[in-house]
Amino acid sequence: MLEVKNLTFNVHENGVERSIVENISFQVQDGEMLVITGPNGGGKSTLAKVLMGIEKADGGQILLDGEDITGYDIDHRAGAGIGFAFQQPPRFKGMTVNKLLSLAAGRELSEPECCKMLSAVGLCAREYIKREVDGTLSGGEMKRLEIATVLARHHKLCIFDEPEAGIDLWSFSMLIQQFEKIHQKKEESLILISHQERIIQMADRIMVIEGGKVAAIGPRDEILPTLLDKGESCVCMDRE
């Protein structure tokens, strides 16, 4: 279980301190899917980076299965069982796709294992397995590869920052299937940051963040109708 208590992250701009994440508290139970949504610029991606240890919190506490990981860096949080998929995945010139997947899995993967992971995120496996993870890959291809790296290892908690961004309809449907499989097994907790209605509809609970604060949190059937009734710009209609 993830437990977040009064998490705060500030930035300094022109000598003025401003809160991007302000006293946010919530929990994610084992096997639960929490979807975080809200207006652009509200602090959702920053919150995800603070949870992963990419940014250091200015206040608050983060507990994973009762263990205080607030002071952990990104490597130690990964070791504790947190996986993370960036909104804009990094590139690694000189590294092949199969090598990247093996590093993510923590062991040498066979070619059939790599192919299975690539196929699961909508990539023609044999066309990509020996390619370099560099500028020759499109943004959508990079997004799918990074999600494959998260799926390559079992985690206690997986965080996906706008997984739908930059991918086509067919690949989007493949990703939905993967999230449904993970969720059905109830072996990993999921945090998905998304504006996409189809992803939001999968959630057990929804948290809305506005201006760095929790504007609403609760069961999907309680929060989603409110968002749709208000015509919130943070929710995009289904692609299909």
TrEMBL record:
Limits of the ABC transporter domain: 2-236
SUPFAM superfamilies in the cross-refs: P-loop containing nucleoside triphosphate hydrolases (SSF52540)
Pfam families tied to this protein: ABC_tran
Record-linked SMART domains: AAA
Keyword Lipid metabolism annotated: no
GO molecular function: ATP binding; ATP hydrolysis activity
Keywords associated with the record: ATP-binding, Nucleotide-binding
Signal peptide (UniProt feature, chain positions): none
Name of this chain's protein: ATP-binding cassette domain-containing protein
Native species: Mordavella massiliensis
